[in-house]
Specification:
single chain, 182 residues, alpha+beta, nine-stranded antiparallel sheet, 4 helices, 31% helix, globular
Length: 182
């Protein structure tokens, strides 16, 4: 019989979608309150693979990813998503926006995968707590990144892959320094 072991700590990441610099800055500041210092920022990518958010947020959307210093327990993901949803509302009020000003999706990297939080149920999503689901977005292999049938279309961009591979390298080094060599 296998004895359950504690989960390895994970590298917290966050995806942001917004159209304005003010919304990006406010979202980053709010997530720093929950996760601590930003360790790495991706470039901002045009969010054009889908128009899903345009009716709610307007045109000219961009996506950026952040990774945060240190590691967290993967069990925190549902609570982080609930907090990020509340932060979205505070930012809308702060910016006096008639529309949703920012979409904030927390997640984490493991040695093998990128997992993001969502409040939207679907067949491949795993319930966590309080209406929040885990969405397995990407798998990391020895040769790079493997997308899945349900991976969001924009995650297939080279810039995204480069960012996540760099964050994964930093995460693996951090595990090694903690004596948790993969």
């Amino acid at each position: 019989m296998a004895i359950p072991q504690p989960f390895l700590p994970v590298k917290p990441v966050c995806g942001l979608i917004a159209a304005t610099e003010e919304a990006f800055r406010a979202a980053e500041a709010g997530m720093i309150e929950h996760l601590g210092a930003v360790e790495a920022r991706s470039s901002r990518f045009d969010f054009t693979a889908t128009d899903y958010y345009v009716p709610e947020m307007g045109p000219g959307l961009k996506r950026q990813f952040l990774s945060f210093a240190g590691l967290i327990e993967p069990e925190r993901l549902a609570a982080l998503k609930i907090r990020s949803n509340a932060l979205e509302g505070r930012i809308r009020t702060l910016l006096d926006s008639e529309r949703r000003a920012v979409n904030i999706d927390p997640g984490y990297l493991t040695r093998a995968a990128l997992v993001m939080a969502t409040a939207k149920d679907f067949s491949h999503r795993i319930p966590l707590a309080d209406g929040i689901y885990a969405h397995l977005e990407l798998l990391f292999t020895r040769t790079g990144i493997r997308r899945l049938d349900w991976t969001y279309p924009d995650y297939d961009q080279e810039g995204y892959r480069d960012f996540f591979l760099a964050v994964r390298r930093a995460y693996l080094a951090e595990l090694k320094n903690l004596g948790r060599h993969p």
